[in-house]
Write a structure and sequence with these properties.
Distance between the termini: 13 Å
Order of helices and strands: HH
Number of helices: 2
Radius of gyration: 15 Å
Shape: elongated
Number of domains: 1
Largest sheet: none
Number of strands: 0
Structural class: mainly alpha
């Protein structure tokens, strides 16, 4: 659904994907500093789930 400005508004799935990807990178910083394998696994899971959420919400079709 296009707004009056001509572009699509972001949906909940898109924001969830963005939050998961940002959280993944933030957790990755701590994993790097703490040398924690568990945190690296959590990082990978967050990034993969975020990318899947981005693809299923068609996040790239919401760009200008």
């Amino acid at each position: 659904m296009a707004s009056s400005g001509g572009h699509h508004k972001a949906n909940t799935g898109s924001w969830a994907a963005v939050i998961l990807i940002i959280a993944g990178f933030a957790i990755g910083v701590f994993a790097l500093v703490l040398h924690s394998v568990f945190l690296w696994i959590v990082t990978g899971v967050a990034l993969v789930v975020g990318m899947i959420a981005a693809a299923t919400s068609r996040i790239m079709e919401q760009a200008y």
